[in-house]
Specification:
With 98 residues, the chain is of the alpha+beta class. It contains 4 helices and 5 strands. A 3-stranded antiparallel β-sheet has the order 1-2-3, covered by helices on one side.
Length: 98
């Protein structure tokens, strides 16, 4: 999906929603991530790799190069994007945000 639209090949090692995630150092299937969230409402339902880790815990649970941060952000305190971005920077990672 990403490569088809951008021409850039990426390996997604984790994805998180507001309370759950899917994590695999070997990579996750983009289409299955979207289908799982759409059909089950939570990424913890992702086969074999779904879990109950939240966004901040995910950043500690996986090796990654770049955080793509796309959460809905609270205009008052900038959360959860603010904490996720700071943590990624503290870990020496690149961040792409909307």
């Amino acid at each position: 999906m990403i490569k088809d639209k951008t021409g850039v090949a990426v390996k997604i090692v984790a994805a998180a929603d507001s309370s759950t995630s899917a994590i695999s150092q070997d990579g996750l299937d983009e289409k299955l991530l979207v289908e799982t969230k759409k059909n089950d409402g939570k990424l913890s339902a992702y086969p074999e790799f779904g879990c109950d880790k939240n966004g901040l815990d995910v950043l500690d649970a996986v090796e990654y190069d770049c955080l793509i941060e796309a959460t809905p952000t609270n205009i008052v305190d900038a959360e959860p994007a603010f904490s996720l971005t700071l943590k990624a920077f503290e870990q020496g990672k690149d961040v792409v945000t909307s």
